[in-house]
Predict the structure of Peptide chain release factor 3.
Amino acid sequence: MSTLEEISRRRTFAIISHPDAGKTTLTEKLLLFGGAIQTAGAVKSNKIKKSATSDFMEIEKQRGISVATSVMTFEYKNLKINILDTPGHKDFAEDTYRTLTAVDSVILVIDCVKGVEEQTERLMEVCRMRDTPVIIFINKLDREGQNPFDLLDELESKLNIRVRPLTWPVNMGSDFKGVYSLYDKTMNFFRVNKTKVEEDILEIDINTPVLEQKVGERDAEQLREDTELIEGVYDPFDRQTYLEGKVAPVFFGSAVNNFGVKELLDTFCTISPEPIARATDKRVVYPDEPKFTGFVFKIHANLDPRHRDRIAFLRICSGVFERGKFYHHTRLDKDVRFSSPFSFMADSKSIVDEGFPGDVVGLYDTGSFKIGDTLTEGEEMRYVGIPSFSPEIFKELINTDPMKSKQLDKGIQQLTDEGVAQLFTMMSGNRKIVGTVGELQFDVIQYRLEHEYGAKCRWTTMPVSKACWLTSDDKKKLDEFIRLKGLAIAYDKDSNPVFLAESDWILRMNMQNNPEIKFHFTSEFK
Ligand code: GDP
């Protein structure tokens, strides 16, 4: 197969959802259809359960699972499909945001009973920032959910995207009869089926009495009314508009019953994008360029604390990645090579000799990678669009074992390189402020500092509600602001100044009073 053929058969995407909507279940069913696993139950949820806050062994176990399921690859209809897993737990949202920088599209799972939930909104915001194409799967139709038209309205208003149903349910809950495909004009009849992947699909002309025979008079009438309304209200589905991230096709089904999953997968295979071009600080790079480039979007610590090596996840963006070849690490300006890069299958890893755009390879790393690092065949550039987001909880890291301060420094440096949290330094006294999106990370950091680096710490909560990166065209004004704000200024890992605002009100005041200074909520700005 030529390189171009290899590229065009790759589909790299993530499944996202609010916890419990059915992401793990849907992932598993897709793998079953793809033949990557043989039995249900083979995919472990990477969910970090609430109780894990105080149960560190549980966190460690869960971390293990999430390495194994970080990327799941399977073949279907001659396509090579890479599913990038994202942690469901809210406290690990940053990890999810970063994974979304490495995919070409997403499938969003919605629980038909709960509708659009908090995490759904935030995840979609990140997708919308990047115009990532989205397919929506409304799940759990075997339960009494909200009216489907209301669900569609809610999706449009809360997620700020147009929707277009491609299938339509006949009832829900105990009376759920199946879904009608608005495009194939077929009816998929529902039956409880937790293990098999076959479906009971019938071509049907809904304007004939066959429909009455199949679903009864009342439901036949309703389906005709609904489809008429849909065709009247929604524009016909247009693939280009979907690829631009402007309209999301919607499917209905029940993942746990394998129901509606095949339609979803088949449509995904037909419409979802091939590996797309990506921006660097110098130029746009196209996947079919001959020279290899890629970037690191995730770093995972080795589970064995005696070996401090880590796994860096590299998304290949152009060219062919080859095992054992030297590549240029552009941030460090040095050449590196990897003797045992690996790919991921459902529950195993295997060494790969080459990888193509769209693929993700795991690289053993001894501490030379940070999130966002770029590898090339010599060209000086860095992939952009992998920002840090302003954290929400801030605590000062206090060393409680002065004999181990070197270990503490090294540990916190490496853990923040991994992206577990963000580290800010205050010039006065070299104080270290750690910012995260969730409380759980502080427990994880404290635990890992002790067990992997032999350092002890405690936390003091900081009265900070938002950290904003600062820039200005007027350097004098910026220096003046930094001098005046004194203790409210810290520096990120790349020594960029950051304003630590005590409250939203204080932030707004400062923004108003200093129009020549720009306040940024993500670390990527020009
Ligand atoms: P995740 O947190 O999004 O990964 O959700 P899971 O896949 O773990 O599913 C959460 C719960 O919903 C589990 O108990 C599933 O068995 C259940 N579930 C998933 N799909 C369906 C469905 O179609 N119908 C019903 N009734 N339950 C489902």
User: Anything to note?
Assistant: Confidence is low (pLDDT under 50) at residues 48-54. The CA atoms of residues 192 and 257 lie 6 Å apart. The chain has three domains: 3-174+236-271, 278-376, 393-520. The longest strand covers residues 293-301.
